[in-house]
Amino acid sequence: MSSWGQQIKLSVFGESHGPAIGVVLDGLPAGERISREELSAQMLRRAPGRDKTATPRSEKDEPRILSGMLGDKTTGTPLCAVIENTNTRSGDYGNLLTVPRPGHGDFTGFVRYGGHNDIRGGGHFSGRLTAPLVFAGAVCRQILAARGICIGAHIASVGPVQDSRFVPEEIPEELLRRLSQSSFALIDPAVEAPMRSLIEECRLSQDSVGGVVECAVTGMPAGVGSPMFDGVENRLASLLFGIPAVKGVEFGEGFGAAAMRGSEHNDAFCMKEGKVATVTNRHGGILGGITSGMPIVFRVAVKPTPSISRPQQSVDLTTGEETTLSIHGRHDPCIVPRAVPVVEACAAIALLDLLLSSGQPLPRTDPE
Amino acid sequence: MSSWGQQIKLSVFGESHGPAIGVVLDGLPAGERISREELSAQMLRRAPGRDKTATPRSEKDEPRILSGMLGDKTTGTPLCAVIENTNTRSGDYGNLLTVPRPGHGDFTGFVRYGGHNDIRGGGHFSGRLTAPLVFAGAVCRQILAARGICIGAHIASVGPVQDSRFVPEEIPEELLRRLSQSSFALIDPAVEAPMRSLIEECRLSQDSVGGVVECAVTGMPAGVGSPMFDGVENRLASLLFGIPAVKGVEFGEGFGAAAMRGSEHNDAFCMKEGKVATVTNRHGGILGGITSGMPIVFRVAVKPTPSISRPQQSVDLTTGEETTLSIHGRHDPCIVPRAVPVVEACAAIALLDLLLSSGQPLPRTDPE
Amino acid sequence: MSSWGQQIKLSVFGESHGPAIGVVLDGLPAGERISREELSAQMLRRAPGRDKTATPRSEKDEPRILSGMLGDKTTGTPLCAVIENTNTRSGDYGNLLTVPRPGHGDFTGFVRYGGHNDIRGGGHFSGRLTAPLVFAGAVCRQILAARGICIGAHIASVGPVQDSRFVPEEIPEELLRRLSQSSFALIDPAVEAPMRSLIEECRLSQDSVGGVVECAVTGMPAGVGSPMFDGVENRLASLLFGIPAVKGVEFGEGFGAAAMRGSEHNDAFCMKEGKVATVTNRHGGILGGITSGMPIVFRVAVKPTPSISRPQQSVDLTTGEETTLSIHGRHDPCIVPRAVPVVEACAAIALLDLLLSSGQPLPRTDPE
Amino acid sequence: MSSWGQQIKLSVFGESHGPAIGVVLDGLPAGERISREELSAQMLRRAPGRDKTATPRSEKDEPRILSGMLGDKTTGTPLCAVIENTNTRSGDYGNLLTVPRPGHGDFTGFVRYGGHNDIRGGGHFSGRLTAPLVFAGAVCRQILAARGICIGAHIASVGPVQDSRFVPEEIPEELLRRLSQSSFALIDPAVEAPMRSLIEECRLSQDSVGGVVECAVTGMPAGVGSPMFDGVENRLASLLFGIPAVKGVEFGEGFGAAAMRGSEHNDAFCMKEGKVATVTNRHGGILGGITSGMPIVFRVAVKPTPSISRPQQSVDLTTGEETTLSIHGRHDPCIVPRAVPVVEACAAIALLDLLLSSGQPLPRTDPE
């Protein structure tokens, strides 16, 4: 199912080479001001062809809002946005219909849908389906921003090249704001050159490379989320694993915590500006599934783009014979930079849903 | 919410020091034979006090089945099991009511429930609530086993001490069966001694230590799961993050994939015994959210037990003053061994739910 | 599935002749004071054997609360209550296992569960399963009452004998309070004698009779519910049809509206005590699926008890031959009086769920 | 929420006077052949202006399928269809923004959405939103038809004028097929003239009139649905009450059963063509929430169109003063004829969802 959520119901539709893709967002609060410029800005960050490290396709990705907005405000009824597919060259994918690409969902989708799904360009499994996700996130993040909740992510690593990490106790809003407007988001700008070199090297060698996205959220009130299955970690993970190529999600110290002692890992409580806080933030802002009021910090592992131009071994599903496959489409050698806004979008959607489910009122902090 | 699932609805209830804990499993197929011995065996693996590395409490954890079974078979209507709380010494937790324990859900639960939740022994947040999960998993795994689906997990690491890893392409059922009956599950028995030493050392130094659980599932048919939000990874993660202390979940190569090239990571397709398979299994049995027919492999990061006897800094929630907290309860210095059956249980529940949602028939493979 | 709800998750379990029946209520607000006396009072209204018109069985129906309460307040975590089955004489139902009772779910349950469900006494389909529903409703109605929301229902008719109807524009709280404490709830006490005579006549002639329950709710704020599928009518109906024997649900004028003109049926808006109201209330307090602030009024059709002692034609499912069935159990000739508290309970559960989903704050109106 | 379903997720979006309306259907089986002619035929039945009794607006209501179809077959991924709004004259509704129309959702929507919803033409509450429902139903009914499941409804009454009723034991497929292609569906053609006269009389007197739609489904296998809250009646009702103007739903004898004795109402079981059946069908094909294999029969009460041209009393929401409202838009004096295909559509959607949830295989009965 491509549907998600409790108070907010998200429904993503479309195939890479079909007429259009889009999203329905049901359950948004009414009367929220949504800037179309900010929507476009987020769409642009994810769009391909914006950056020399990305694929040269120039999809316009201009969403048309069909419902749920009156002027610049949400109506509270379902918001639907549609993005037409204009720049599709199906010929590139001709032999994929019978020979599944290694590392892609071609084969599993073929079994799941009995061969009836549209696998041109990945069909519904395509990374292009993250465009409606970014749109939905761009709506939700504006509603959160009006409550002082700020989201930003960066390229924590590409292959072995690492950016600085967030200092989880103290994440300045300005940093998150800068990251959330960048198309190659890094905490340490000096890392950009070596990262781009590595990506370019992969492109030249007809290869690809994976990486990690780290995301932080400040301003979330304490007490949001529920124990067991509706915790912040459960809900966020259930959405984040919907991003193609994501193979791991960790919160706070994450897998690093597995190597620590309790005396190292526990975050002592203290009073800060009259509120309960923690001295350190190894818990990543979530304890028992519930927000602590400290910044939320999580990381997402992105596998290397499976579409590489080198010949690869596969199987012809029609004959059952092993064969060699060469992919000639246009592909990013590294999708991690473009995954950054998608991860932020998922954070925005999940946190707004959790906030609305919490029964806490949604007071506005902006002047309006 | 402590409710989960689509075709199967799981509802876990209870507080550590209340009258009883338990679980309702709605949506099970009817007529499935369930061995009570196998249920008890799984409960025993998780139960405390079974092993010198674990807490000395001897809870009996004997589930009483109230509904949903007639003789030794499921009726198809909701199955409810209740476990009485017998061995609770609330006195141990006296000062916790106002001073939250670092690393626990005491503080966040206090905010979430306005101070009304029962935090004696962790209340609904207690690790004890994994007992009903293990029970539910022990029911589901028997239904899966009758279809040739086998689940096993092991202690991949405790602190820096590592077990061998699964060879993901080739996981023998016998290994999984052995692991799923062990109370200190390891692939390489030689690792047991150093692991136990480390845990004992933590106990003596009033400290605790984290670790990683690795789980594998064989026999899942290809084509189960859906793209985007109802993929195997999404559903499994949404359940696994419900286990207290879990801070990370990864599939296949997981975070390791982030450092790889596409040419290293992609799994070539091949024919094996007349079926499409992959030569390697870095994808962990899941592509595009859907099972490939290869073994499913995932890892779960468990943080160190937050309950340690050393004095820790905290805050008195009634006075708003910083204070020092000493915990005198009985606590496992390492819960990773006991987390193994819980992780397996989550896998069983999630995969049965996914299988029933897939629309694929559920043919039995056992003689009956 | 025997699970229901969005913000509140209700899970009912048990079989009539199994060890116990019960309910889990997840998602309740924390810190709500719940009077056990009021719980018992509601359980008693539904319990059999309290009234000469009802079956002579004397089930105690004493719920044991296993979780979710601390002292007399909700904790906010799942509340589970269990009712032991004590007075069951399975022998009465011996031949039902192979010969389905006309009008019951025996046959359809047999097909649905492949013959594996427990059909002694109706099993999970038994009217006894309304006891946990009444318990759950008795919890929810106390939470609503603390906000000034009052629920009451009455026996609108038994066969051709009719009680007065609510005057939907003006329903006094005192009336609802009186009805909600009565075990044979009538607006017009003069109707009791002829109704009881009719029921007694049915008993003597080994027959049964149906009726209508009418329910009203006052004090619901305007603006609760959503258009299309999460309207008050949708949610209430989806719960009310879970009461065995309910075959129809109508709101406001209901089926009567089908025979009216728009000029007769439309309710004019007016100002009343500074608030928008309607002069008449043919819409039953719901317009476009959303509460208008006027009293909610609905009716529920209850079919005659299918268990009658007269010989009836049925089929032996083991031989496929037609046969005659005689039922010798103890049965109410009319379950309508005991259905009244069940209908009220469903109203309480559905309206609390809708209120919590509405995002409106839940201010208390009682002194506390 | 405008989202519905379990195995099938339905999401309806749009406002009457916004850019477009539409629907997403997630969870459809893959490889199902869908005839666009049949889709158009159903859309045409509901479309206004097709019949002299209906409003003269000539909306084209031509759905554009954006995803989920490849050629003439479903892909199994979400199917989205969009219908542009072309013929909207917002001027007609000018004063509605502040003065709510009696009998409409204007006022309740205003409170629910804080005045931010688009109420031009009813906005998201408009009867126009049934067009996407009919589209979705037209997809689902073709999938059901390929399994021998046939759906048809008729105008059971308009005001006091009544059509014949179904003979519930014996409903010929040919009758259902004829009804499901008619734009003024009646069992007895002789009733058409007096019904049309009555409707015309209402139009001339600036009034409107309500009615009842009766629907039947043949070919449903026994054993579909679940006891308590996921029964056929619960699920169908939760969808049917989403149709604007529906105020009552009853199954089988429905409210008539309330006046009957058990000995009259119980349906005796018998053997018919080697299968268990019932001699009569007062239960309307559903016992204990589960299909019995007999035809499903239910009725829906439709209130008179609230939009009438006569001056009506209302309130100016901006000033809080009572005022008189005159509506000058184009309105059907009776929407019952156009509600017939909407009721059929809801039946198709709910029954396909139930069938897919039942775990029963979906064998095709057509030659393909």
Give an overview in words.
- The structure is a homotetramer of 368-residue chains.
- Chain A has a single domain, classed as Chorismate synthase AroC (Chorismate synthase, AroC fold, 4-Layer Sandwich), CATH 3.60.150.10.
- Chain A is built from eight helices and 18 strands.
- The model of chain A has no long low-confidence stretch (mean pLDDT 92).
- With 368 residues, the first copy, chain A, is an alpha+beta fold.
- The two termini of chain A are 38 Å apart.
- In chain A, strand 8 (150-158) and strand 9 (161-162) form a beta hairpin.
- In chain A, 24% of the residues lie in helices and 23% in strands.
- In chain A, the strands form six sheets. The first copy, chain A, has a five-stranded antiparallel β-sheet, covered by helices on one side. In chain A, strands 9-8-10-16-11 form a five-stranded antiparallel β-sheet.
- Chain A has helices at residues 36-46, 106-112, 130-145, 173-179, 192-204, 232-240, 262-265, 336-357; strands spanning 3-4, 9-14, 20-26, 64-67, 69-70, 73-74, 79-84, 150-158, 161-162, 211-218, 246-251, 269-272, 275-278, 286-287, 290-291, 296-302, 312-316, 321-325.
- Chain A binds chain D through residues 1-3, 9, 11-15, 18-22, 24, 26-27, 30-31, 64-68, 70, 73-80, 82, 112-118, 123-124, and chain D through 1-3, 9, 11-15, 18-22, 24, 26-27, 30-31, 64-68, 70, 73-80, 82, 112-118, 123-124.
- Strand 11 of chain C pairs antiparallel with strand 11 of chain D, so a sheet runs across the interface.
